[in-house]
Design goal:
Layout: H1 13-20, H2 34-52, E1 56-61, E2 67-70, H3 72-78, H4 82-85, H5 98-108, E3 117-125, E4 128-141, E5 144-153, H6 155-173, E6 177-182, E7 187-190, H7 192-198, H8 202-205, H9 220-233, E8 235-243, E9 249-260, E10 266-275, H10 277-291, H11 301-318, E11 321-329, H12 332-339, H13 341-356, E12 364-367, E13 372-380, H14 383-398, E14 401-403, E15 406-408, E16 412-418, H15 426-442, E17 447-450, H16 453-472, E18 478-487, E19 493-504, E20 508-510, H17 512-522, H18 525-545, E21 552-556, H19 559-563, H20 567-578, E22 585-589, H21 591-595, H22 598-611, E23 614-620, H23 628-632, E24 637-640, H24 642-646, H25 652-667, E25 671-674, H26 680-688, E26 693-695, E27 703-704, H27 705-708
Parallel strand pairs: 16-17, 19-21, 21-22, 22-23, 23-24, 24-25, 25-26
Antiparallel strand pairs: 1-2, 1-5, 3-4, 4-5, 6-7, 6-10, 8-9, 9-10, 11-13, 11-16, 12-13, 14-15, 18-19, 18-26, 18-27, 19-20
The structure holds ligand C2E and magnesium ion (MG) (2 copies).
Length: 713
């Protein structure tokens, strides 16, 4: 027993403790019971330590497990004051697995070195289950075995573990490669994506410096800058090239960060990277698409502009020159129309690859769309160099192309402009090369022309002519001339062909060859063609009424006109209005019309055929077409082209072609007309060879209606 203090009331346990540890109002009463003070103070120190500990501490009797002592944390955990807690049995506290725990404690009681056991158990507390980390061991106190239980809330450990698991999962599942190194840049860990990208396994790289991936493409300065940034800012981001285990070099986008410990010292480096090979390839593809023609793969206009700037800069530096060749394929449209777009496209590709072979690697060949190509020759020394390239282009294209079982010949018309004389910017050089190309066409195609100043004037003239053409119909400047067609057997005029003329106020009578292509390009041919049909039919009505009752009228149709949807209706309506029998009208179409859009063409021609309108194939023998269409379409007349007729007497080949065409017509029961017959000899030859009808200067030049037919007696 302790001796009482000199106060009348004994101090409570807490007051006594406060007094001993120097707290509270009683603390001034030092030196009381000096003999006990040191023991008591040790006990109190332990008591205080126990109570201040966040760890739950319980002392239980063995073997039954009754609580004999508990600290403040225990009281809080089990929600009861010490006087209630003490005396309770362990299984009554709401703890799980207490039978197990007691069994172990009892088994260990009496052991020389009892084991400290750890486990996680749960505590049922009100509505919740609380996880606890529990340690327990048997302990000998004053010769008696007790069980000591230490427990604490396991939730923060759970949370930390979940966090770690999450981080590990993020690293392992990341679609980016991850390398973790120590402060000395030795690899500690890598993820699966790293292994997939580089081909190295963790075992192969552990402890090594990431330098082992280096491709050698970046120099020392690059890495110095990178480390400078990491040291200064703690991170670096950028693109670099590394090498896979198989030796392949690949681009990666990399982000490297230094991880510092709580003292600010670098403890790790984390490097996160993505393989950007695919992205780079995609970017390159997009770049390529943006700068190249989709069909031929040649540079497009954008790239040409870029190359032009380079050529310009180089020329300025070296006081040199550069030139543009504007290449247009002659009659390419015919190929498209007769053989179809697939063959047309293939031909353009083949032309492109032949062109590539004609220039140096430093020159640029570009397709401008359609059948137009531009060659940019940089650094040229004389006009002869350019002319040489133009001749090479012509030679390269001179061999026929074999496509889809066809043999196709294409020729180029080439216009040339040279800096600085013909312009010092792309637009004016292009414009002048274009004009020169147009001139090459005028000169009979398949040739090259250098730009000359006077060409500018001519282009102006063309523009003026176009605007005149737009007004010509309104102003009534068109006239029809008619050329008679004579029947060989009867010697009578069986029909006439209507041929269009433009009576220009200043230019005089303009030939259709000079304005029909322009009328087709501008679409003006549609109203003009309609006018021709109406005028010719009206004229025919007059003639038929004045004695030429069986006269037929041949009218030429353009491909553009043919494509307009209501052509059949127009003709039907016209024949009705003029009360003309359908077989009095003969429509002349060229082979190219037959071959373009064959399905629709067949439909239209057969409608004409059903109406009874006569169909003639004009300029027969000059197209690319196959003969199969003669069976397919309801054709009635073949008109042998005048180029074959011209040399009948002198050229065996032409004569053979003429007699072959006549033979073909006979076999297919078609009428055959020879055009361009100028001489008696030609007439005789054709008559002898079975030609039915003759047309040409020999039987009559095209003339206005009043001078076309001989007077009837
Ligand atoms: P085409 O239909 O083959 O017409 C025959 C051309 O040969 C005409 O040329 C005619 O004047 C010319 N010619 C006739 N006999 C002889 C001859 O003995 N010797 C020579 N050297 N030539 C002769 P033109 O009138 O200059 O017409 C040229 C082309 O213009 C025509 O060729 C035709 O394709 C087209 N054309 C004429 N009028 C029209 C029209 O109203 N509409 C359409 N779409 N085209 C037309
Ligand atoms: Mg004709
Ligand atoms: Mg003709």
């Amino acid at each position: 027993m302790l001796k009482p203090s000199d106060e009348s009331q004994p101090l409570s346990w807490d007051e006594e403790r406060d007094r001993i540890i120097g707290l509270g109002e009683h603390s001034q009463r030092k030196n009381y019971y000096p003999e006990l003070r040191s023991n008591l103070s040790r006990l109190e120190r332990f008591r205080t330590l126990l109570d201040l500990s966040g760890e739950t501490i319980l002392l239980v009797t063995l073997p039954e497990g009754r609580v004999v002592d508990a600290n403040a944390a225990a009281c809080e955990l089990f929600d009861c004051p010490p006087e209630t807690l003490i005396g309770k049995l362990l299984p009554d506290l709401g703890l799980a697995e207490t039978t197990d725990v007691l069994a172990l404690l009892n088994a260990d009681a009496g052991a020389v070195t009892p084991v400290l056991h750890h486990r996680e158990i749960s505590l049922r507390k009100a509505e919740t289950i609380l996880p606890l980390d529990l340690s327990h061991r048997a302990a000998l106190v004053d010769g008696t075995w007790f069980g000591v239980l230490l427990a604490h809330d396991a939730r923060s450990r759970h949370a930390a573990e979940a966090q770690l698991r999450l981080a590990a999962r993020v690293i392992s599942d990341s679609s980016e490669g991850i390398i973790i190194t120590d402060a000395e840049s030795r690899i500690i860990d890598v993820n699966t994506t790293f292994e997939e990208i580089t081909g190295y396994t963790l075992d192969e790289v552990r402890g090594k410096n990431p330098r082992l991936l280096s491709s050698g493409r970046q120099d020392k300065a690059f890495y110095q800058k990178m480390w400078q940034s990491i040291n200064d800012t703690g991170a670096w981001r950028g693109e670099l090239w590394n090498r896979r285990k198989n030796g392949e070099v690949f681009p990666e986008w990399l982000s490297l960060s230094a991880i510092r410990d709580e003292y600010g010292k670098v403890s790790h480096y984390v490097c996160v990277f993505t393989d950007v090979t695919e992205a780079k390839a995609r970017e390159a593809r997009i770049q390529h698409m943006a700068h190249h023609d989709f069909l031929t793969g040649l540079p497009n206009r954008i790239l040409l502009i870029d190359r032009f700037r380079q050529a310009e800069a180089a020329a300025q530096r070296n006081d040199g020159r550069y030139a543009l060749l504007f290449i247009d394929l002659d009659r390419f449209k015919n190929v498209n129309d007769t053989l179809g777009h697939t063959i047309g496209d293939q031909l353009l590709c083949d032309v492109a690859s032949r062109l590539v072979g004609t220039v140096r690697a430093t020159d640029t060949i570009s397709r401008q769309g359609g059948d137009e190509f531009i060659i940019l020759l940089s650094d040229i020394d004389s006009p002869e160099t350019v002319a040489h390239v133009a001749r090479k282009v012509m030679a390269a294209l001179s061999e026929p192309f074999r496509l889809g079982g066809h043999q196709i010949t294409v020729t180029p018309s080439i216009g040339i402009s040279v800096s600085p004389e013909d312009g010092d910017d792309l637009d004016s050089l292009l414009k002048h090369a274009d004009l020169a190309m147009y001139d090459a066409k005028q000169q009979g195609r398949n040739n090259y022309q250098f730009f000359r100043r006077e060409m500018n004037a001519r282009s102006l003239e063309m523009l003026l002519m176009e605007s005149d053409l737009r007004l010509a119909l309104k102003k009534g400047e068109f006239v029809l001339h008619y050329q008679p067609q004579r029947d060989v057997t009867t010697g009578q005029i069986a029909g006439v062909e209507a041929l269009l003329r433009w009576q220009h106020p200043e230019r005089g009578l303009v030939s259709p060859a000079d304005f029909i292509p322009m009328a087709e390009d501008t679409g003006l041919i549609v109203p003009i063609g309609q006018w021709v049909l109406e005028t010719a039919c009206r004229q025919l009505v007059q003639w038929r009424a004045t004695g030429w009752s069986h006269l037929r009228m041949a009218v030429n149709l353009s491909a553009v006109q043919f494509r307009q949807t209501n052509l059949v209706e127009q003709v039907r309506h016209l024949l009705d209005a003029e009360q003309l029998p359908a077989d009095a009208l003969e429509l002349e179409v060229t082979e190219s019309i037959l071959m373009s859009d064959a399905e629709r063409t067949a439909l239209i021609l057969n409608e004409f055929g059903a109406m009874g309108v006569t169909l003639a194939i004009d300029d027969f023998g000059t197209g690319y077409s196959s003969l199969a269409y003669l069976k397919r379409f309801s054709v009635d007349v073949l008109k042998v082209d005048r180029s074959f007729v011209h040399n009948i007497g002198s050229n065996k080949g032409d004569a053979a072609i003429c007699s072959a065409i006549i033979g073909l017509a006979h076999n297919l029961h078609l009428m055959v007309v020879a055009e361009g017959v100028e001489t008696q000899a030609q007439y005789d030859w054709l008559a002898a060879n079975g030609c039915h009808i003759i047309q040409g200067y020999f039987t009559g030049r095209p003339a206005p209606a009043d001078r076309c037919l001989p007077a009837l007696n």
